[in-house]
């Protein structure tokens, strides 16, 4: 399921995201809830249920009805924007450059990787239309600050920032989908692989000869973490190796005259 950000009223959404003066004021007696409390509850629900959560579930977590939430947040569209941006507040806004840009960029990437693992629903919010919240900006600002220290010009840096950002998100998406597959299909990964690989080898016993290069790639492989399932290990290995190659490329660009 893909959700597109920015579907609510533009002014109301931006006012709430940036906590513009008066954005949370409501007529009547002192409110018993707050926008932050609702957003925090919604994040907790989404961590458990995914992005297809209901306003009713959020209200129940707060001991309120769904209708009570609309006094503070116009609707689910605006709430998703607020959730996305507030979740990103967990991430650092700066990284020390004492050891150079590469260790800092590596730490940024690993922080993002772990963040997506904690909040997989975030990856269901499409990047086609950004949320335009302060914490979303701060996360990219942190990476840009690291890479600006390389001395590369802005024209090159834009592509590098985008490549690293999208790479980490794409790698993390594999793990999120692998973890969700069992619950969605009712079949564990081990059962799925065992059943299909056995049939495939029975029907096509010469698979290794037909695809020798693919067979070569599978040789001498050791799991990064023996406790993780196959696909998660594969994604983690791809993440680490892919990030290394990406940063090698940045180093190459920096070294060019």
TrEMBL record:
Q: Which Gene3D superfamilies match?
A: Homeodomain-like, Tetracycline Repressor, domain 2
User: Which UniProt keywords are listed?
Assistant: DNA-binding, Transcription, Transcription regulation
Name the SUPFAM superfamilies for this protein: Homeodomain-like, Tetracyclin repressor-like, C-terminal domain
Asked if the Swiss-Prot or TrEMBL record annotates the protein with the keyword Glycoprotein, the reply is no
Q: Report domain Tetracycline repressor TetR C-terminal positions.
A: 98-251
Enumerate the InterPro entries for this protein: Homeodomain-like_sf, HTH-type_TetR-like_transc_reg, HTH_TetR, Repressor_TetR_C, Tet_transcr_reg_TetR-rel_C_sf
GO biological process assignments: negative regulation of DNA-templated transcription
Its domain of life reads: Bacteria
Q: Which GO terms describe its molecular function?
A: DNA-binding transcription factor activity; transcription cis-regulatory region binding
Any Pfam family from its record, for instance, is: TetR_N
* Residue ranges constituting the HTH tetR-type domain according to the UniProt record: 38-81
Q: Please state what the protein is called.
A: TetR family transcriptional regulator
